[in-house]
Amino acid sequence: MYYPEPIAKLIESFSKLPGIGQKTATRLAFYTIGMEDQEVNEFAKNLLSAKRDLRFCSICGNLTEKDPCAICTDPMRDKTTILVVEESKDVLAMEKIREYRGLYHVLHGTISPMNGISPDEINVKSLITRLMDSEVSEIIIATNATSDGEATAMYLARMIKPAGIKVTRLARGLAVGSDIEYADEITLSKAVENRMEI
């Protein structure tokens, strides 16, 4: 279908976002066209502000306006524990549960031999540097349960354990509210492996 060039370019821009297919991109483009000028200006301003005003924390690698970030400078955080995640959005997910009070380290990806991503291409070196200059006694690896996430976790464990620092991994298994009959084999295997006494 032919669209005027401005809307075709807008659809193309929306379709470059992850998880946005052609139909959703078209719907978003037409919705944007129908917005008031003030709303569109505010939307554009927010996009530019997020891109321009955010940076990565020089300590943990999390997105922040101020460097170092609020978590790294919070005196109430437990400085003996660092939770290692793949992306900044994972920090937000952990902070929502309000259970973890330690520090974070954001890798900005995972080691992926299939995609040619080596440890040098993610934020590993600064993690090792942090461990040399701090009182950290435990690293909690919270990479995703994918082959790349597992490979990254194993690599980090091999790098960190010789320093005498405890390395743990988030438990894997059945989600709360799920049925055993619908779980895949890997999930069930991890659930058995990570079982706990009650």
TrEMBL record:
Entry-linked Gene3D superfamilies: 3.30.60.80, 3.40.1360.10, 6.10.250.240, RecR Domain 1
SMART domains: TOPRIM
GO molecular function terms listed in the Swiss-Prot or TrEMBL record: DNA binding; zinc ion binding
GO biological process, any: DNA repair
Keywords, ordered alphabetically: DNA damage, DNA recombination, DNA repair, Metal-binding, Zinc, Zinc-finger
Keyword DNA damage: yes
Pfam family, one: RecR_HhH
Cross-referenced InterPro entries: DNA_Rcmb_RecR, Rcmb_RecR, Rcmb_RecR_Znf, TOPRIM_dom, TOPRIM_RecR
Keyword Zinc: yes
Toprim domain: residues covered: 80-175
Zinc fingers typed C4-type, residue spans: 57-72
Classification via NCBIfam families: recR
Cross-referenced PANTHER family: RECOMBINATION PROTEIN RECR
Family recorded in the similarity comment: Belongs to the RecR family.
Chain's role: May play a role in DNA repair. It seems to be involved in an RecBC-independent recombinational process of DNA repair. It may act with RecF and RecO.
Protein name: Recombination protein RecR
Native organism: Lactococcus taiwanensis
Organism lineage: Bacteria, Bacillati, Bacillota, Bacilli, Lactobacillales
